[in-house]
Every structure is written in C-alpha cells, then in structure tokens.
Amino acid sequence: MTDFDINASDRLIREAVYGGPALPPGHAGERLRREGVRLPAWVVAARGHHAPPAGRAAAWACRVHPGLTYLTFNGSLDSVKRRLKRLSTRTGDIKKAAASDEWLRALQQAIVSLRRQELKAISEQDGERYTFADENQTQMIAVEKVRRGDPDWPEAIRVWIEIVLLRHQQRLDDVRRKVIELLTRLTRSIDRARGLGFPFGLGMRRVYETFAFSDMPQVVDSVVQDLMPHLIGQSADIPGCSPLTRDAMRFLRRHKLEPVSLADVAAAAHVSAPHLARRFKRETGRTVTDMLHVLRVGHAKQLLIETDHTVLTVALASGFDSPEHFHRIFKRVTGLTPRRYRLAYG
C-alpha cells in the first residue's frame, strides 16, 4: 500500500482481528498515526457504531465489523473513563497498547471483555447450565413450532438461542454454526419452495455478519420471521397445521402479487370467509391479510436488494396499490423504511 489505502487497511484489520493473516509489520502504528493517535493508547470495544465521545485528547473510532466500534484513545485512563460514561452503550474493559504491535492484541482483549459482559447479562437472567441434550431437545420443539406456524414459536426460538449462547460462551463461530444448523433443519424437508432461497441466503449472510453475542437472538428471530411464510403448509407431515391452513398458505404464496381478498382465499379453500379467518389466525397467529402482507414484503425485499428499481416500481411489482401503503406495511413488518432496508442489506 504505497499510498496507504484506507479501505485495504480496514480489510486487513477486519481479517486479523478474528484470526486471519497478521497485520504487516508497522501497519498498526502507521494507521494510528494517520488517524492522529499516538502510542501508548487505550483501547475499548463498544456495541453499535459510535463516534468517540468528545475530549481534549485524540481518539479514533475503527468500524470494520458490523455492530461493533473499536475505540482507541490518548490521554489518561481517568479521562478515558469519563469520556466513556457519555457513551450510551455497553463497552468492555479498557485495555492498554504500549506499542504498535500490542494494539491488535489489546483490541482482541477488549472484544473478549465486551462479550463476557454481554454473556453475563444473558446468564444473569437464567444461571443454569445446560447440556447438549437440553439444547437439542429445545431446538426440536422450536423447529416444530416454526414449521407449523405456532403463534408462540418466538419464545421457543428465544429459549433455544439463549441456551446456545450459555453453552458456547466465547465461541461465536460455534454459535453461528448452531444457528445455521437450525435454519437447515427448518427447511430440510422442503424439496422445492419458490422464494425460499432468497430469505435463506440472506439469513445466512446476516448470521455471519453478526459479531455481538447479544445481537444474535434478535437476528435469529428476524431471519426465522422471513422464512416462516415459506415453511407453513409446505409439508403434510407437520402436526398442528390443518389442511385448511396449508391450502390457504399455498394459495397466498401462488397469488401474492395479485389482488387477493379473504373471500378469494376462502373460495379457493372451499370454506366460508369467517371460518377461514378464525382457523387461520388460531393456527398461525396472523390474519390472512397480515400473512399476505408478509409475503409481499418478502418479495419486495428481494427486489430492493437484487435490483436498482425505484421504490415505486418495487411497490407496484410486489402487489401494493400505492407507495404510501407499501411504506406503511413495509415498516410495520421490518421496522425499516424500504430505503433504509436497501442501505442496510443491499
């Protein structure tokens, strides 16, 4: 890097932090000098993306991993502690880097410290220690609830991921592997399902881009939410999912981009609209209209990420009759506006 490429430097740091190739000799020192920070320095890891709290001494916020900021400070230890008190997020212990070759190690120690605090927050909610059998049995229950659309599946998933986090402390790769095993188990019995590949692939990407233990339950919940509409009714051997719900889900998936009403779905299932509405809500926890919206938003997500279409074009191509309606439903389902979603995952 003759001209010191900052993007290349970020890539080297990103890989080195989690066990990739070591930084070239002198690289850390040169990067710190270019960021205005001298050695010795103090290093701390913080959740989220943050600028350094204001202070007299120099500081640098390194953001090379999603959901984490690595802060390097000059000044006294007391001054760093005072600055961190103004940071409204969880941070790990403050580590000292006396020389450039100690900076990466201090950074890794700071990350470990942050993770320990995150895990402590989790374990304080339930201090028990679980076995592999506990983990596996809980996963089996969670998978069954998800595949049949049981309304209380989120609680089962949350219990399972908390057991995983407690059993695999300080092993983020193992946690990711367990989550991928869950996603695979959820979809294993489905031979072919139009539209399932996109949310599955995006889900795997999100899992591997999660670097904070405490963020994993929310990520898993969101990924499973995206998979749900493609799982319900796909297999006749799922207990608790009636033929009526399976027929309704198949009709919704097939016609989600067309004008569809509750009466249309009921007619296709050969039952009255009120009967379908009651049965569907009891078995899936959603109304027929809500499920239709979820399917349409799923289609819109794919267009937002894989194409350059305008938001208006995406809205109309996803079955919505106006951009205002699309914005309202999209944000209700995802928590983000379409534009913010595209920026986050596109």
Describe the structure.
Helix content is 60%, strand content 6%. The chain is mostly helical. It folds into 3 domains: 6-110, Alpha-Beta Plaits, CATH 3.30.70; 132-231; 243-345, Homeodomain-like (Arc Repressor Mutant, subunit A, Orthogonal Bundle), CATH 1.10.10. Helix 5 packs antiparallel against helix 6 (153-167) and helix 7 runs antiparallel to helix 8 (197-208). The longest helix is centred in the N-terminal third of the chain and has 24 residues, at 100-123. The model has no long low-confidence stretch (mean pLDDT 86).
Shape: elongated
Number of DSSP E strands: 4
Distance between the termini: 29 Å
Structural class: mainly alpha
**Oligomerization category of the chains in this entry:** single chain
* Cα Rg: 24 Å
CATH arch. level architecture of the largest domain: 2-Layer Sandwich
As residue ranges, the low-confidence spans are none
Query: Which range best describes the helical content: under 10%, 10-25%, 25-40%, 40-55%, 55-70% or over 70%?
Result: 55-70%
CATH class of the largest domain: Alpha Beta
Number of domains: 3
Name the average pLDDT.
86
CATH topology of the largest domain: Alpha-Beta Plaits
**H/E series:** HHEEEHEHHHHHHHHHHHHH
Q: Strand percentage, roughly? A: 5-15%
Helix tally equals: 16
Main β-sheet, spatial strand arrangement: 2-3-1-4
Main beta sheet strand tally, sense and closure: 4 strands, antiparallel
Summarize this structure as a short list of keywords or feature phrases.
mainly alpha; 4-stranded antiparallel beta sheet; 346 residues; 3 domains
